[in-house]
Structure prediction request, 195 residues.
Amino acid sequence: MDKKYIASLTGILILIAIFFSITFYIYPNQIYQQNNLVPIPILDVTLSSNEIQKGESFVLDIVSKNTGDIADIQIVSIAFPGLEDTLDNVKIKNYDFTQSPHYVKIGDEIGAKYSGGKETILAKYPSIEAYSRPVPSGTINLISVEITPQESGIFDIYVKSIGIPHFTDESHYPQAGILDHQSELVEVYSVTVNP
Prediction:
């Protein structure tokens, strides 16, 4: 082939790569940073029962709302620190998030410290992550999960939500609570399981 042809083809490919980098990475990030978009997730969590017999089930309903600016992604996480897996214990009854909920298993690599995946850990307990994208202000999503604990005692569930971009503490819910294995704040909901 002609050297001029190869040089011009290489130049065109470099320009295309630069265009796509600007269009899909640099430009959207600059818009978020310049406008300081602050999605504000809020959760309303309901348990069907606070006390059950061993072998019985209860239902956890979550209503998720973005009360702030548009979010690229809003995640709702439901974690089960007392379970080894969710296979026989947790069933998603219904949801209306735009993406299918994802089951996280012990040992899966997951994001940590509100870093948007820049920092990761290995999951120490199973969870479910449901999310929508994009999430305009005022958007409401629902998820309903049926849970059947196998052991008697106190059964805890960790619930949280994160809006991305995450530039301030307002972009996660709750604002206070305990830290989970991802070093992120969670609300704890408990059900007493009688023998």
